[in-house]
Predict the structure.
Amino acid sequence: MTSNNSHYVAPIEETPLLATDAVKTDQAPLSLWADAWRKLRRRPLFIISALLILALTVVALFPGLFTSVAPNEGCELANSEGGPTAGHPFGFTFQGCDIYSRVIHGTQASMSVGILSVLCVLVIGVTLGALAGYYGGWIDAVLARLGDIFFALPLILGALVITQLPLFRENKSVWTVVFVISLLAWPQMARITRGAVIEVRNSDFVTAARSLGVSKFGALVRHVLPNALAPIIVLATLELGVFIVAEATLSFLGIGLPQSIMSWGNDIAGAQASIRTRPEIMLFPAAALSITVLSFIMLGDAVRDALDPKSRQR
Amino acid sequence: MVRFILRRLLQVIPVFLGTTLLVYYMVFALPGDPIAALFGDRQPPQAVIDTLRSQYHLDEPFWVQYGIFLKNLFTFNLGNDFTGQPIAAALARVFPVTAMLAIEALAIQAIFGVAFGVFAGLRRGGWFDSTVLVASLVVIAVPTFVLGFVFQLVFGVQLGWAKPTVGANADWGSLLLPAVVLGLVSFAYVLRLTRTSVSENMNADYVRTATAKGLSRPRVVLAHILRNSLIPVVTYLGANLGGLMGGAIVTEGIFNVPGVGNKLYQAVLRSEGPTIVSIVSVLVLVFVVANLLVDLLYAWLDPRIRYDQ
Amino acid sequence: MRDNEMTTPEIRIAEAGTTGIRPLLEIRDLAITFKTSGGEVQAVRDAHLTIMPGETVAIVGESGSGKSTTALAAIGLLPSNGRVSGGQILLDGEDIAHAPEKRMIELRGNTIGMVPQDPMSNLNPVWKIGYQVRETLRANGQPNGPDDVAKVLSQAGLPDAHRRAGQYPHEFSGGMRQRALIAIGLSCQPRLLIADEPTSALDVTVQRQILDHLDTMTTELGTSVLLITHDLGLAAERADKVVVMYQGRVVEAGPSLELLRNPRHPYTKRLVESAPSLASRRIQAAKEQGVETADLLAPAAEPAAADNVLQIQDLRKVYKLRQGLGKSSDFAAVDGVSFDVKRGTTTAIVGESGSGKSTVAKMVLQLEKPTDGRILFDGVDTSVLKPADLFKFRRRVQPIFQDPYGSLDPMYNIYRTIEEPLRVHKIGDKASREKKVRELLDQVALPQSAMQRYPNELSGGQRQRVAIARALALDPEVIICDEAVSALDVLVQAQVLNLLADLQANLGLTYLFITHDLAVVRQIADHVCVMEKGRLVETGSTDDVFESPRQDYTKALLNAIPGAKLMLPPEVA
């Protein structure tokens, strides 16, 4: 047995050499967003939630398409807790109002509070979080402490105090609820943004951009923020659902939207009186609320899966 | 570790001061007569107004007022409510009930959330995982107050498994139904977080190394996967205590539990400003301290934290 | 061990006097399949190798060659989407390719041990080192008192083992963690140790110490070792036999030196030619083309004195280290460093992690301010540059970074990436910029079709070419390469180094090359600066430093190059 026997060489025709480092040309170019979109499109969870949200948006924008009864119209105590009749498929509330029309009109309040609050939280949270994470130093320290203070005030508790203020007690509207929610919820968005920005800010591509001559702020806007967007988008989608619940809870407690505005939270509070006798009065607004929240939570879940950096190909 | 505790303690002080200052400022220093503001549309008896004026030292400069407010807070000298009852005494009565409710809810969400999450995470993509995931989404989507009424109606009234309302004599058994309602939403979050954490850790290098050392599967799961997966879960449980307090207001209202939340809810219905401010301040204190405890637990679970920031 | 009734048809490598010993591990026709979203992928096919008792066998290959997958299959630790789809893995005659998990748990630890690749992620951060050793001993039925744990750790070369056992992984340096992992891998005296790139994450000098120690320990215990590595030089130096894998197949196998001196498969030949640790000469691409001599000597001849494009004078960088409550101490990352960089040449700064070499690069790039000292660019002190001048300076000095996955913005396609510097400096209009991008892609040998692609679609080498193209977009004079080829596979690394050499010859570029890899320095640099703990310990021409190093530290670095001492005929090396 010479050493030659042990020196094995694979037949060359079976192991052809490939060109070192050839470029693949068989696939269409794929940006990260296109990649995420492609993954998203294939998820049933996303399709269902997107369709539901689309439908809810239409209802919120054009309630007149679905009911001819105007808000708070035609309530007659004679109909109190009445069952379904022609033209009133869900029956009547304790006050004798048409449940179907109230549920339809309530969509607008929930959706607008949710969307407006998320927009406010995005503007405040992303701006402050990005500045704190990117520049660090005293800005970061001040914002961190400020965030801690608001963070120590749980949403419902904080809302209880704020809505007791004369300013808010007198003229409640969608905007006051949006203000209260945004004021108490921005720290979480700021935290997430700050973390995401810190993760990106030391990347080589940011340093590379800086050494190309891109200004410090320019690098934040052009390179850091776009790469920090994924967790921000995910949180924003999930918070839509959370804020809608918050509005309903505040309205339920009587410190949210005033009775004059149609809202599911108010309706559920009103239906308490009939809970033992006719629980279905509560069922309809509760179901509408739950389905809306579920749509946004499912959307957030699907978006998270699609944007998850761990599932990205390198 | 001692340095870590000291540093965290030092960090808690400005947070507590800042939060109470915020609350106090909003109520007493914004334009308008604070006393009138506290009562809204009602016209309180002059005697009550006078008591409040002296209690909050409204003639003094703002910082002195705030200092006295803090001193009162720490000495539990919280003043009287509209019926003339001292708020502190009422709080002392209702606080244990809420503590029981919160502990029970916390236990439910922690134990079941982690257990379900571990099973789902270990068999990611299996039938149990898929079922539990969809179910958890539904649970998250149904607001606590809707869930409360549904459970009250179904388990309390129709099935008769539990008393639909708790009433004056709250004990562990009668609090079970409200605790389930209170813990259910967080249970779903804990479950999902545990699941993600477990299935991520399963692919960690150190888990592979532990297996390569010849450890049995149960030991790998317990000592390496589970132990490490608990770290984010504990953080979540701590951060979520605030949510639990908010939920307690709703839950205690629905089930008529004589707790802090219910007290607060009654005060809100009656627009009793002083009571609200006092209770919220106390709750903020509890929340901050509880968060501190969770942070220490976190540091105990994750030795890296004690050294880094 | 001896089993004369056992008959196997294979021809075995049997050294004189040991006939009749059967292999400890024999892998036959192994095929491994992975389930991916795009269907089943065969990662390994027809792999075969034999390890005799006490022998060390190395599998060499690039990333994706299937070398680690093969080794993991041998200890039954394939990822959950992978499975052995054919062939046998015979451990002492027993086929363990499809052995039940219970049997594998019996074998792991005391029959087959493993030392994993990355010391940072392979120790559980929440348990003390001692606990992680003890649970290994306990699981394999060994005595596991505190003294046993300490003994295991001290055998792996950890001093003060009793105290060390009470510490957490994050209190250990990388080298110490790797020693702890070796301690764990060998704690139950396994008959086979699988060492998967056991030192690739460590500094070269530490790497050598640890490999030496591993050698000693396995020799004492008579353990067979299956060593996985990307470094042919290291494999040849440490193993009796080398198995070369390529695209999931074994392309060549044989005794180490024999294979190195006389590679037969074209892939192995390429690998031997490209392995930086084996090459002894500078890449001569330019000189061979005959272009260089005239072009490069001309500017050097014009000014009588040397034309120093960069002059670093007494550079110092001090960081404040926070030590808890308000206290802080000074830490000099760079301390009194001076050197010159001649136009049109390559100067390398070599050092291990923490030597301050990257901090020097950042200061030259004006991304960090020096605490003290001056950096002269073209005779002008860069510290007094006004913002407008700094902007102009950036056109003339460009960086290329280490991590080909981190240095390109994943949101930008290749066209936007390369065009960005032109846009920022407002050079040309849209059409002329596109023309320039196309030219640049040609220069770095990337097809123009790559323009619409995104970084995540390209390989590491291709990304590094894009980074080079971006750096060249502004026609700079100096390029700072911060570990620019360290993350690349050997063959790709050779390609990129050749590309850099060509570009230097054609464009008269000056390179400041920051690296930890002395082998690469020899291939590309004219001058070397060796840094240790923030100080410059030795400078000189590359040939001088390599032929006759003056400082002990430089000698240690040179000695640590794997395969440096292998006697290879010059026509191969």
Chain A has a mean pLDDT of 82.
